[in-house]
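Re: the multi-chain job from yesterday

Posting the exact lines I submitted so nobody has to dig through the queue logs.
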Amino acid sequence: MANDPIHQFQIQKLFTVADVGGVEIAFTNSALFMFLTVGAVAAFLYFSTAGRALVPSRWQSAAELSYEMVANMLRDGAGKEGMRFFPFVFSLFMFVLFANLFGMVPYFFTVTSHIIVTFALAILVIGTVVIYGVMHHGTHFLGLFVPKGVPLAVLPLVSAIEVISFLSRPISLSVRLFANMLAGHITLKVFAGFVGSLGALGALGIGGAILPLAMVVGLTALEFLVAFLQAYVFAILTCMYLNDALHPGH
Amino acid sequence: MSFFVTEALAQESAPAPAAPAPDTTAPQTAPIEPPLDAGAPADAHGAAEATHSEVGHEAAGHGGPFPPFDPSTFASQLVWLAISFALLYLLMKRVLAPRVGSIIEERAGRIADDIGRAERLREQSDAAIASYEKALAEARSQSQRIAAEATEAAKAEVAAERARIEAQLGAQLAAAEVRIGEIKSRALAEVGSIAEETAAEIVATLSGSAPQRDEVAGAVSAALGK
Amino acid sequence: MAAPDDGTGGDGKGEEAALSERLRQLDARLGQKRSERQAAERGRSARGGMQGMGLAVRVSSEFAAGVLVGAALGWVVDYWAGTTPWGLIILLLLGFAAGVLNVLRALGKVAGPETRVRPGDGPRNGSGGDAGRG
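And the result, structure tokens for all chains:
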């Protein structure tokens, strides 16, 4: 198991809940970790602020820091009106961040290493953008795809490019997160496997295992950075896209 | 940790879901899985994994669908993601975000308040100092003015007093002179009568007879008038 | 009369000096606090390192996503309209252009659509479109 870098991404059925039209809905380890993530986020934000201290404790200041980071991100990216989406963006950020960080714990499942999860989150973002944009700006929202000041002759071409660019947003949003988590975890696992198998060879192997071990340590640090960075990028892009929904040209 | 729980549970529940689930991919991968799994390095779990027919599981890494791309797991993942994320969103909207936000707002308000109050107090103390200095300067100038006034008044009073006393003295002097003049004139007037009496006495003594009064008076006045 | 006045004046000056010294300190501290807060306000809009790394992570996938979506759309068009392989070819090219546009937009070289469609922005719009097509 330790030597199979793919094994960590296995979906394991814990129990079946329902069977809808031949599609089995099962409670899996993935679902378990989704709920663990939600629980951890809620517990972190709830209990760290239990003191409501004027001078924050370490935990409380971590919670406040994350709150303020997302709030500033949203304010800078989407303006004051964007703040109505704050719970949404903060939920997304914390969910992705905690899911990524949970993935760093050995033997834990990484929710965000599954394309369907990241894709669903990206579609949720884009869906929110489109629905809100159409609801509040009507057809004016489509002005996003029709840049003004472009000669009529090349307008279809430019619009087509704009549409593809818009459609590529959920793809880039989801694939980036998914690919980073997947690749990072596979790399970590492979190097950890080297350490394990080399260490098993005896004295010489233990000497030879030092380099991969150092690599694993370095990669782990890098992965923590990536875990945070991906959540950050996901949130900041969400803010940018929400900005389109709020201000699709005036 | 969860893996062991998982497999134990999966082993128990394996026959049940395997039979009714008409998975499209299950029949394809089912026949090839036991030999492949047996040869895999994870043979400790091979037996357990082979018994339950989770498609992505035993096939992964051995030519089957790569687990993150295995469509048979999509439906359940989506369902649970929707449920868990909706739960998180609701918690965030109702409880968590207002909670953290209120703490931050409170602190920001408190700090702004404190700084504002300090600034206000500083301004007040500035104003107090300014008014104190003004009052001090006023008091100083007033005291000088009062001193000057007092000096002037004292001088004037002294001058007036002196003038009054001088005038009084002058009047007394004048009165004294008048009295002296009177006394003198009276005395001079009495000198005649005394001289007459004296002359009459002298004449009486010398002549033995008392002279006529008129004669004496005429003689005296003639002598005096000379 | 002059002597006691001088005496109280000197005493007042000593107190005044101490008071003004304390006031000056308070002033300096208040100024420091205010500038700190302003710096914090400014700092949050210019978080250089984080944004730089975020950008680096973004750019690569933005381009790939454009091409990917173009190709997928092309494939779908071909599948429904039976125009193989022209839909794929054309939309792949458009996808390439969209990928380049995505990257340029991520780098801030081209105005985003929301600023581009703002009226009265003629010349900048033109250049934006050109860069997008290039």
